[in-house]
Write a structure and sequence with these properties.
It is built from six helices and eleven strands. With 250 residues, it is α+β, with helices and mostly antiparallel strands. It folds into two domains: 152 residues, Alpha-Beta Complex (Nucleoside Triphosphate Pyrophosphohydrolase); 68 residues, Arc Repressor Mutant, subunit A (Orthogonal Bundle), CATH 1.10.10.10.
Length: 250
């Protein structure tokens, strides 16, 4: 273990961080889910305070001195939306000069994928409102459509349009080699191949061949023991009954 010399200890005792300009650090949370119609959706909060008062943003805030980045992300998410115990992955760091009009701010963004029915959202802390928005695009960029509000890309606070776009692309890039799709399922202990296929199609933005998807599903998940049959099938309802599967939890 490294032991500083007495000369170094003296240097550290006399070091004055306040003598130097330094950036502040924030965290942001990109929370994805699917609407009832299988539309990719995101959680936004409406800012209560300046800057960007009244504009919509992804949940987040400043990191406190005694907490880790992930702890800060979880705290801010709970304070602003009421959500907690949501597994999150680090997405990227955003540090463009001028991204925050108050001061030099570097933000570490996190992302999570959750089933819609598990979300019990209520605005708190410095959030005036909180709502799920379905993600669309037109020739001008992102269009986020909620039950009560519509938000265009240039109406988002800070550089959050860039953060959201980065998260969407990351989700598309990683869904084939991660288990992200299972996190969107309302019940990963009882689902059909069709349900999982719809999630992949929503994220990728394309229709997938049913036969190829089934073969890939069996090879990637069933043959490897990550998914097993439950021994049950869906009720027919005039259609061919489908096999139900469950995700093996580690």
């Amino acid at each position: 273990m490294y032991q500083p010399s007495e000369e170094e200890r003296e240097y550290l005792r006399n070091y004055r961080p306040g003598d130097y300009e330094r950036p502040s650090v924030t965290v942001d949370n990109v929370i994805f889910t699917l609407s009832d119609k299988h539309e990719l959706s995101i959680l936004l909060i409406q800012r209560r305070n300046f800057p960007y008062k009244g504009l919509w943003a992804i949940p987040g805030g400043f990191v406190e001195m005694t907490e880790s980045l992930l702890e800060a992300a979880a705290r801010e998410l709970k304070e602003e939306t009421g959500l907690e115990n949501i597994p999150m992955d680090q997405l990227a760091t955003f540090g463009d000069v001028g991204r925050d009009p108050r001061m030099r701010v570097i933000s570490v963004a996190y992302m999570a994928f959750v089933p819609k029915d598990s979300l019990n959202i209520h605005a708190g802390d410095d959030a005036r409102d909180a709502e799920l928005f379905r993600i669309y695009r037109n020739e001008e960029g992102l269009v986020l459509i909620g039950t009560r509000h519509v938000v265009k890309e240039d109406e988002l606070a800070f550089d959050h349009a860039k953060v959201i776009e980065t998260a969407i692309q990351r989700l598309k890039n990683r869904i084939d080699y991660t288990e992200d799709a299972f996190h969107f399922l309302e019940n990963d202990q009882s689902f059909t191949i069709y349900e999982l296929k719809k999630i992949f199609e929503t994220v990728k933005g394309e229709n997938l061949d049913a036969g190829n998807f089934r073969r890939d599903f069996l090879k990637k998940y069933v043959d490897t023991g990550k998914v097993v049959e439950t021994g049950e099938k869906t009720s027919a309802n005039g259609r061919r009954a489908a096999t139900l599967y469950r995700k093996v939890r580690q």
